[in-house]
Amino acid sequence: MLRSKIIATGMYVPPRVVTNNDLAGIMDTSDEWIRQRTGIEQRHWAADDSSTSELAFEASKKALENAKMDKSQLDMIILATLSPDHEFPGTACFLQRKLGVPGIPALDVRQQCTGFIYAMSIADQFIRTGMYRNILVVGAELQSKGLEKNDNGRDVAVLFGDGAGAVVMTATEVKDPKKDPHVLSTHLYADGTFAEELWVAAPGSANSADRIGGDDLEKKLHYPHMNGKLVFMNAVKRMPEALETAFKQNGITMEEVDLFVFHQANLRINDMIAKQFGIPEHKVFNTIQKYANTTAATIPIGLDEAVRAGKLKPGMLVASAAFGSGFTWGSAVYRF
Ligand code: ACO
Asked: What's the structural domain count of the chain?
């Protein structure tokens, strides 16, 4: 049975740490409010001369190093981000150039917080069909430059951080599905009814002739706007649904999963899901306290941190789920 598996992880966050108290110095917020509502204690912000592809490059180098794989063996790059280097071409092309692997396909995925699950699923399909063997799958975000860092934008600005995570996925012949590392399933969903509930409206072709103009800037359409309560309510419904579907399809129980590496939007979301399913605390690996929401990068960062913390070991069964802008959501179940 030809399947895909993750053989290595890597991550990178820029060195500058921004604490909740630092934010309280530039907008009307407090460490207490942010911690209580989200679990976030700090985040990392990149330097002004940095870029999403640069963060992605650093994480990718580590993943390739950990995979003991030469970059020339890569067949494809898939990069998920909501904070691209430029409008076009895709950030995966800039990453490909930095890695020095011209020729191989480089694909951008724009599914925001669910971006990494979508990217993983795409890689899994290409590998299952036998088209490619080795795919670099990256989630990378430089969000700090795009946040409204004042009282007006405080509801969103405190939530996000910069960072990148990468995994190397490779083809594998699965003989014993109960033991051999492989991706068991991915489930992807979207509901565009809610597209404007969490979005950056401009620039864009649906706007005025210049894609951004008129009073778009005054209206702050180039900053993210979010209906936080609606996102929260949908996240705690949709993530469990996507997990339950996956468990049913794979004929496994929640108890069989060794580690849950969820998207990191809010610690309360993950705590509610864990409580709902009766998942013991030690089986949920959260990183939001240190990195805040790094959107497409949260899951690969979580995987890499879990490996380095000795919490994620070869042979373990892992479940991931994410929810975000679009709305989009999904799950992935994989033996590591
Ligand atoms: N500091 C202090 N006060 C604030 C801040 C802040 N940073 N932001 C908002 N407030 C105020 C509001 O003005 C409001 O005040 P009011 O009651 O006087 O009007 C009040 O705090 C709102 O508080 P709550 O109703 O308790 O807020 P809530 O519990 O909804 O928490 C939060 C807000 C944390 C944003 C929550 O809704 C959430 O986490 N939502 C989901 C976020 C998410 O999952 N995003 C998806 C991922 S992002 C992606 O896909 C790109």
From this structure: 2
Does residue 213 share a domain with residue 159?
no
Ligand 1 atom closest to 265 (CA)? 44
Phi, psi (5° rounding) for residue 260?
-105, 120
The predicted model scores a pTM of 0.97
State which residues form the domain around 308: 182-335
- Condensed to tens digits (0 to 9), the pLDDT of residues 191-211 reads 999 999 999 999 999 998 899
Beta strands in 151-308 (DSSP E): 163-173, 182-190, 198-199, 225-226, 259-260
Same domain, 111 and 236: no
Share of the chain above pLDDT 90, in %: 98
Residues lining ligand 1, judged by CB closer than 6 Å? Answer: 29, 33, 37-38, 82, 112-113, 154-155, 158, 198, 228-229, 231-232, 235, 265-266, 293, 295, 324-325
